[in-house]
């Protein structure tokens, strides 16, 4: 008991130090970067407002959500706080400006996060189609993966094509150099990451898992995650030289040996430092590698930061 208590005291001390490191860096370095003062006039149509004919896919900073379809997961006030990473529906996230969705599923096509499940993936498809019907030039990256510990839904690749076929941008390395206008009316890059089923191939309607990469750091310590994100980002080629999307997760996650196990209070430790991360990407000379930035509980300011940097890239200021 004494050893466990001492361990918790040490962890709280480490956490306090790490939070202070980022807070002090924010004061000294600020949060400015090219485009940081930009505010999109309409987040729902922010790609259209930037200009579909001059916006190339590799220039976009994609605002993404982590565990996107968890707004209704679990039982409210009982299991939900341990698995919920977003409070908005898929449709609401897209209207807010989210352009990359992270969907985890199990064998029966229910969305899940670990052992907890929620609504059918059909709800996700319905929300996406509603959003696409209301907009004209917004491109989405839809990542669907079989959650760890679960089996792939049978014949799922064909099912996705059935649901979204007319919107799907087919697997093609040349997409990264193209403008949004070049791809229209197709609007969805769907990346399918099965556990055992064969992955999609070049030319298929869906894209394989290698086209969306990241380096997940499983920690609840904000400065540790922040520094690791910078390190792994620095190891990537610039966006103009690579043929895959690279994601940085501006999140930290609860750990089993920590008394705080609810997602929201833990991820808040890093949530407010997204603009600082972009600032430090410039300070360390790796901003030309930024592409997808994801978060829990996405908000308008997070979207604005991504759109602002995208605008600066298109204008040649970044």
From TrEMBL:
GO biological process, one term: lipid metabolic process
Single GO molecular function: phosphoric diester hydrolase activity
Gene3D superfamilies: Phosphatidylinositol (PI) phosphodiesterase
Top-rank taxon: Eukaryota
Residue ranges constituting the Phosphatidylinositol-specific phospholipase C X domain according to the UniProt record: 51-193
Pfam families (alphabetical): PI-PLC-X
Protein name per Swiss-Prot or TrEMBL: PI-PLC X-box domain-containing protein DDB_G0293730-like
């Amino acid at each position: 008991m004494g050893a466990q208590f001492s361990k918790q005291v040490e962890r709280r001390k480490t956490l306090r130090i790490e939070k202070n490191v980022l807070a002090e860096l924010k004061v000294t370095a600020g949060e400015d970067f090219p485009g940081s003062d930009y505010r999109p006039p309409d987040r729902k149509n922010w790609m259209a407002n930037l200009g579909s004919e001059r916006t190339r896919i590799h220039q976009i900073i994609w605002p993404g959500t982590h565990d996107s379809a968890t707004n209704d997961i679990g039982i409210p006030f009982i299991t939900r706080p341990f698995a919920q990473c977003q409070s908005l529906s898929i449709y609401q996230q897209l209207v807010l400006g989210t352009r990359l969705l992270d969907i985890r599923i199990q064998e029966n096509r229910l969305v899940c996060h670990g052992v907890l499940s929620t609504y059918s993936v059909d709800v996700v498809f319905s929300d996406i189609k509603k959003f696409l019907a209301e907009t004209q030039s917004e491109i989405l990256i839809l990542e669907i993966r079989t959650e760890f510990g679960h089996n792939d839904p049978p014949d799922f690749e064909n099912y996705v094509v059935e649901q979204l076929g007319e919107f799907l941008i087919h697997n093609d390395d040349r997409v990264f150099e193209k403008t949004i206008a070049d791809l229209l009316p197709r609007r969805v890059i769907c990346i399918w990451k099965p556990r055992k089923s064969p992955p999609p191939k070049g030319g298929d309607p869906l894209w394989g898992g290698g086209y969306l990469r990241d380096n997940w750091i499983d920690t609840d310590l904000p400065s540790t995650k922040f520094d690791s994100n910078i390190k792994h980002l620095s190891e990537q080629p610039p966006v103009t030289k690579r043929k895959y999307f690279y994601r940085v997760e501006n999140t930290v996650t609860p750990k089993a040996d920590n008394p705080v196990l609810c997602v929201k209070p833990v991820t808040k430790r890093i949530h407010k430092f997204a603009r600082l991360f972009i600032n430090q990407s410039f300070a360390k000379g790796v901003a030309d590698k930024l592409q997808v930035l994801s978060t829990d509980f996405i908000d308008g300011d997070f979207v604005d930061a991504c759109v602002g940097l995208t605008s600066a890239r298109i204008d040649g200021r970044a």
